[in-house]
């Protein structure tokens, strides 16, 4: 394919994309295929001779689409949103064409790990400064990190990767599933008494299960006093902080050592795009710096230059900032704020539908675009309801567990979700609930 | 921007991209700006109101392009190639539109780390099986990993992240900078005698400095016998193995526990796209598995399903396989083989130009698309030559160090590089060499 053909095919692809997105709600949101369905649809080996572009395009519907979960369907309410916008797509096209190896971040999971590694390296340095003879392996074997029992599973994984102890801090429904200062303080004291070295706390603003906010105004001063690195994971909720009315949720940020949120979740920047701030960049550089000759250049020591690959583990990173730039400019702050507010409003609308129905209950405060709800009754009846909902393939939701209860998560995700989709989703849910309750009386 | 405007703007963007790529060689390959140049060109804050798309597009040339290194210019000979092809771009457009959170791999650096973590976890399990009382921290503090002194810097970084000892195996010019079986065997014996536990060896096929190939037919059996995980990093060279004539370079692969190469380097699949094979997938899953309720689904235990996020540290991954699929189909194996062969031929052409000039020498065997060369003489004269070459901004090269010598790396990178570009590059290099040698007689 030469540039001339690309001009033609690229324009067809633009139309194909616009068609796909304009008609996405006519597709079943969740695929009805078994793992491995693809195997029989594609050849065992790559083709010997080139195929025609027409054949490839024909196979998009035949081969690919049947297996796709349509994350941008207005019937998608699972996990959290993954962003999608026309300006971001345009920027991504250009970014692909420039195809330079740029600088930016991976995902929130990576940010959590990067912060943990930097914290580990800082803790080891601090202890060696006062006790230079102590073996490093002895120090790391005593390190202990903390996060909420509501934190994303990638926090626990970060602990496994870094080879350090990671303790979960219990939360309570009565505290809205937020980590309390007193609980952290007690755990730190117990661990120090047992000879351990507390060094890292991952706070979450907007947890995955229920969008809970850890009390960082209480937790931050404790961490600072104990020289514990406080990382804030605001992967989802972070986007909402562009609205003044949600900004108070960020109070306490001044105590953080690092902060991360994902514009690719809720700020209209296509996946993937995750941003991280760090209080003291030398802490990051210290944990990752490598200096081979083939990566040396004139600006390395100038101070104006920050080589992000010194501060994460991937050597090569895509030019992701381009799509943020397109999105910020094409929507403007107001457009982005409107977008966030509309999602929150739609969540509130869903919440009031749930509250108006005596058979259901709300399981956690609705702060942003996530509604946690359930049928009053057993976990079994709720599991059956969710299964029924997802098998219908009209809307898609995932569950979570809160205080031992099986809870349904309704996250407003798609850019195109409107009030009518919310009402239709609720009609479907109540209809299936009716069926389930007749079959499984509590 | 609605779908209707996206149809219009998308088509303009397709033309902009085609124009950019068709005329890329008219641009200076390397930017002539200082770090921070962008700060004065962009506002301090995101715009309050949306801007027009025209304004954004105008700024591509004004703001972005002056800072871009044009990796796809036929005058780019630095690092290794980063792939770029029209089918891959089309697929990436579609992938952005579908925007689902898919499954695939990050980069070779990540593969190295993932393999190291899996190896660490396997080693700990094996030792605990025979000595269940031994503290895990005692085991990890004794672990030792190996790689060539020619291995990519990310291998060393992987050791830092995993918190394990990483030893560099010395290589010699006389052995073509390849790790020899005998050297590894001796280091293992010494380390075991000192109470250490060898557990991981990262072999490289096609090193970054000189495209050297470690002798895996010798090294593999040693690793297998010692229960050392052998990971093979073939980030660049891996693409060439689609040609039968380069397949012998892969001999010994049967001893590997894991293998990685980057289609985004040399297989026409746009960045990023890196693939990894592992002998026993349970070794990976064991190192990373997490099971929160919101990620549970019906197929998890079916055996037909492999959740790749159980085996790497990012939770969310882009739908990268789509662009491999487009590229394999649109080029066919033959087209891809032709592409690899052409680059190797161009490298051989450059090599013969160098060899024909008595003032220069070739510093390492030319096996694939990389030519390592230098002026006979001091490191200083070669450093000056390289600086002069890159300051000219017509072509771009990076250096490496081989046996203490400062060496210039000429890597055939761009999809559009032709013989005339190679000859023009050589003319430029010899002309600058002339100048440098007059100023700095050796």
TrEMBL record, chains A, B:
The lineage of its organism: Eukaryota, Metazoa, Chordata, Craniata, Vertebrata. Pathway: Catecholamine biosynthesis; dopamine biosynthesis; dopamine from L-tyrosine: step 2/2. It is an enzyme of class 4 (lyase). Keywords: Catecholamine biosynthesis, Decarboxylase, Lyase, Pyridoxal phosphate. One of its GO terms (biological process) is catecholamine biosynthetic process. Pfam families: Pyridoxal_deC. This is Aromatic-L-amino-acid decarboxylase. One of its GO terms (cellular component) is cytoplasm. One of its GO terms (molecular function) is aromatic-L-amino-acid decarboxylase activity. It comes from Salmo trutta. It comes from the Eukaryota. Belongs to the group II decarboxylase family. Its EC number is 4.1.1.28. Homodimer. Its cofactor is pyridoxal 5'-phosphate. The modification N6-(pyridoxal phosphate)lysine is found at residue 265.
């Amino acid at each position: 394919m030469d540039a001339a053909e690309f001009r033609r095919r690229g324009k067809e692809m633009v139309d194909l994309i616009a068609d796909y997105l304009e008609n996405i709600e006519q597709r079943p949101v969740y695929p009805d295929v078994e793992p491995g369905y693809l195997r029989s649809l594609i050849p065992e080996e790559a083709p010997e001779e080139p195929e025609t572009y027409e054949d490839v395009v024909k196979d998009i519907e035949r081969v690919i689409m049947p297996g796709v979960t349509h994350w941008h369907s207005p019937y998608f309410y699972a996990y959290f949103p993954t962003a999608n916008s026309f300006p971001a797509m345009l920027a991504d096209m250009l970014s692909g064409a420039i195809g330079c190896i740029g600088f930016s971040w991976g995902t929130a999971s990576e940010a959590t790990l990067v912060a943990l590694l930097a914290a580990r390296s800082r803790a080891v340095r601090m202890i060696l400064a006062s006790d230079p003879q102590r073996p490093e392996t002895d120090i790391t074997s005593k390190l202990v990190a903390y996060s909420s029992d509501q934190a994303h599973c990638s926090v626990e994984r970060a602990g496994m990767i870094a080879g350090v102890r990671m303790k979960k801090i219990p939360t309570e429904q009565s505290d809205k599933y937020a980590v309390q200062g007193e609980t952290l303080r007690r755990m730190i004291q117990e661990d120090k008494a047992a000879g351990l070295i507390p060094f890292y706390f991952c706070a979450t603003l907007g947890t995955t299960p229920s969008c809970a906010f850890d009390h960082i105004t209480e937790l931050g001063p404790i961490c600072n006093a104990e020289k514990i690195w406080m990382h804030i994971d605001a992967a989802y909720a972070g986007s909402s902080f562009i609205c003044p009315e949600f900004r108070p949720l960020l109070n306490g940020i001044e105590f953080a050592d690092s902060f991360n949120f994902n514009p690719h979740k809720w700020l209209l920047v296509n996946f993937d795009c995750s941003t991280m701030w760090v209080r003291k960049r030398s802490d990051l550089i210290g944990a990752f710096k490598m200096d081979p000759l083939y990566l040396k250049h004139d600006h390395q020591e100038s101070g104006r230059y920050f080589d992000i690959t010194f501060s994460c583990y991937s050597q090569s990173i895509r030019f992701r900032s381009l799509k943020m730039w397109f999105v910020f400019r094409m929507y403007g702050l107001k457009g982005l704020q409107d977008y966030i507010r509309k999602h929150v409003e739609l969540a509130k609308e869903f919440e009031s539908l749930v509250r108006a129905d005596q058979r259901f209950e709300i399981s956690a405060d609705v702060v942003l675009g996530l509604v946690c709800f359930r049928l009053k009754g057993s976990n079994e009846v709720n599991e059956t309801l969710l299964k029924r909902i997802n098998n219908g393939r009209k809307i898609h939701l995932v569950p979570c567990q809160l205080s031992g209860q099986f809870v349904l998560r309704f996250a407003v995700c798609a850019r195109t979700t409107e009030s009518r989709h919310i009402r239709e989703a609720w009609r479907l849910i109540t209809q299936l609930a009716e069926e389930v309750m007749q079959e499984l009386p509590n």
